[in-house]
Amino acid sequence: MRRGALATSIVAASVALLPALTAHQPAPPAPIRSKALVDNRDHLYVLDGWGGVHPVGSAPALATIDSWPHRDIAQSLALFPDGSGGYVMDGNGGIHVVGAAPQIGSGAYWDGWNFARALVMAPWSSAAQPAGWVMTGYGQLYAFGGAPEITDYTWWPGIDSARGVALLPDSTPSSVKGYVLDGLGGIHPFGSAPPVSGNPTWPWMDIARGIALLPTSTAAHAAGYTLDGYGGIHPFGGAPAVTGQPYWAGQDLADSLVMWTSAPAGSPGGWMLDRHGVVHAFGSAPALTPSTTWPDWDIARGFNGGGGSFERRYVDPEVITDSWGTYYNQRDSRWGGQLVGAGTETIWKIGCLISDLAMVYTHFGFRDVTPATIAAHGSWFGLSGNIYNSALNIPGHTTIMNWHPTWSWIAANLRAGHPVIVGMNLPTGGTHFVTLTGLNGPNDYWTSDPWEQNAHHVTFSGDWVTRGPVYEAIAFI
Question: What is the mean pLDDT of residues 13-28?
Fold first, then answer.
């Protein structure tokens, strides 16, 4: 009954809390451009966790060839500087064609790890000359296409700490330089990028979410901004302060930021993305309307060129009720951190069966039962969180356990209107339980999955990371 995600970690080396930017720091550099930059106001896109690439404002649509409609695995989007195409990176490190980009391998792939964190394209890249890097959660940078290898970066073996990467615009194939952002806000130069200062850090708090450089930055003078999960945009390297974006104190809702490449000299601006897909202009940037948003879903994964987020451990409260009953998610922020019984395990980590059982309770009219109320029954659980059979006895109903269920047995119970909870062995290891609420044709079932976001009345079939061979079934009559 365990179903977990890669846990967030902190960097190994401690960092000092830096003061806010002062007026004595140097002014940002004058614009230095070897060629005109494409106005990214007309080439801005949002990536969703299923692999969809959505235009913002007047950006033209870009075709994609891969998507994952049942799993939140798309992690980062990066385009060529001309905006004609690029790649979506999945959490395993695979890269997938967008627009005019040619098919190419990333050269780095970790099947089932959900370990890749960001994708960045080289400033000189194009459809004819694709080049870029995949960044892992440890901070490693793996080149693909014609990009040179980078070897002098900071990384954290065994610690999922890297959150973003930014290249200086004057990088060349013989001199790649830039910065890696860690989860505590530390900015780590590589190549000949100069050290920067002025950025705040948050010791022992993984809240840094993005990094963006001013388009005028060079190796002689680099400046830009970091983004925290609450929406704070923090200048470093002498970049001027910006305003205009929302701020959600205590809520990890900010996702990604990108600078406006055509901002007036001395008056920078850009856009911040929240986890629901809403685009917020700041500084001098014009307001832009996204083509798609997802209210109450943590599914927006980043701008092109603005890094990307990963799904939060705890999801926003999901209140979904229909004639069948109430849907519950084990990672719901209302109870995800609650301990199960008298043990040390939490509902978010092992509470799939608990959440399924609470759903079945509501189906039979016990609408006040939630995963929290079931987990509070200490006598129903062992110290390791294992659930006793006594917890499965719903007043007024009969519980039937089948340790070797056939599909015909499950279908017969669903056809008779009996809810069925099934336990599965997952391909990635561990087990997971979901609730089957009815038949969906002759070969499929309607399912409520307590792990995936808002997974109420979804199909059992499909490319679900939370599906596997059924080894146990519990029918309630």
Answer: 29
For the chain, domain boundaries = 40-303, 320-476
SS3 content of the chain, % helix, strand, coil (to 5): 10, 30, 60
pLDDT at 385: 86
- Cα distances (angstroms) measured from residue 373 to each of 301, 347, 376, 387: 33, 11, 5, 14
Instruction: Say whether pTM exceeds 0.85.
Output: yes
**Is residue 149 within 8 Å of residue 108, measured between CB atoms?**
no
Question: Which two tokens mark 351?
Answer: 């509470």
pLDDT tens-place string over residues 81-106: 999 999 999 999 999 999 999 999 88
The confidence band for 22, taking pLDDT boundaries of 50, 70 and 90, is very low
Structure confidence by residue, pLDDT tens digits, 369-393: 999 999 999 999 998 889 999 899 9
The fold of the 320-476 domain, in CATH, is Cathepsin B; Chain A (3.90.70)
Give the residue carrying structure tokens 């695995």.
73
Other CB atoms within 10 A of residue 161 CB = 26
Q: Considering only CA atoms, which of 205, 204, 193, 199 is closest in space to residue 227?
A: 199
* Residue corresponding to tokens 């890269």: 95
In the chain, the amino acid numbered 116 is A
Bridge-based pairing of strands 233-236 and 254-259 is unpaired
CATH 1.10.3210 fits 40-303, yes or no: no
